[in-house]
Beta-ketoacyl-[acyl-carrier-protein] synthase III (Stratiformator vulcanicus), 366 residues
Amino acid sequence: MQENSPHYPAASPTGKEAAVAVKSRSPAAEQTFRRSDRTNRLTGIRIVGTGSYVPDRVVTNHELEQSYGFEPGWIERRSGILERRYAFPHQATSDLCYEAAKRAMEAAGVTADEIDLCVVGTFTPDSGCPSTACLVQDRLGLDAPAFDVQAACSGFMYALMTASQFVATGNSRLALVIGGDVNSRIVDAKDQRTAPLFGDGAGAVLVSRGGPEQGLVCYQAGADGSGGPLLEMVSGGTRKPSTAETVAAGEHFLQMDGRNVFKWAVRAVTETIDLVLEKSELSPHEISLYLLHQANARILKAAMDPFGVPPEKVWSNLDRYGNTSAASIPLAMDEAYRSGLIEPGDLLLMSGFGAGLTWNTGIFRW
């Protein structure tokens, strides 16, 4: 498809950069995050099926308080989370993704032989190799290329953007897109400031060709690796392979500078929502439903308050699942769709943001 195609146009010109300044872990350093005003459009695609899966094991705040001596009430006050789901010992990320994919296929009424692409957004793969997508592809019996996309809590939006390119250009007829993470395996259970925020889950959608106005009418994907130290796992990669010493020091667990992540997330979500609305010439009230990454209730409120959107238009399941990383947006989408809140022609605003630092905010016409 040509660059000037109405269904796959070139990026809009780069505008002025928006800067966000927050302190890094070093008290003497000042970290500046930047994003441009560049946006893109990717229409001619549609979502034909949704599915999700969360493990049966429910872990309440009370259980964590009793097990680890966390301050009573702290988790709910700071995050809005009441409980989350943890995978059982025999479950890995691919298992959750497989279940979500099956449900999406059943909802769409499609069989494995119709799917010709599988993209999984995750930062908690079963193992370093093979990819989680290949494990899902094999278990579903797909005859399709399969690969992972690693953008942490932005993973589903990055995976959706990537798979949609294949569909829009005719290189895929039906793509399976999954976001899934087993966060309970990468956090230190004794860390009150990080561990209680996260839960496990997976969500999936099926993408096919659609009408010329369907799909991502405007989106912005971005990254700023200079903010990497705010959310990181220090060891376990090729820079610093895991050793007995690094494991003893807990360097294989996710480490988060919560205060500065909060500041960045609120600013990033607010500014990118404002940007895609402006570029689309839409008001906040023309959006049918907001499906934002379920990171923290305080982040969602602070980011959405400037737009004056009523709470019922901002989907929230954070209290039940916590932060499920790449799973949070497709899980919310599946719940909303099955609740009858998404109709043909509706405009959904989705925003993923997380480690990298990465973000992807887009308006999707159903």
About this structure: The first helix runs from residue 61 to 68. The longest strand covers residues 200-209. Residues 89 and 185 are 10 Å apart (CA to CA). DSSP finds ten helices and 16 strands in the chain.
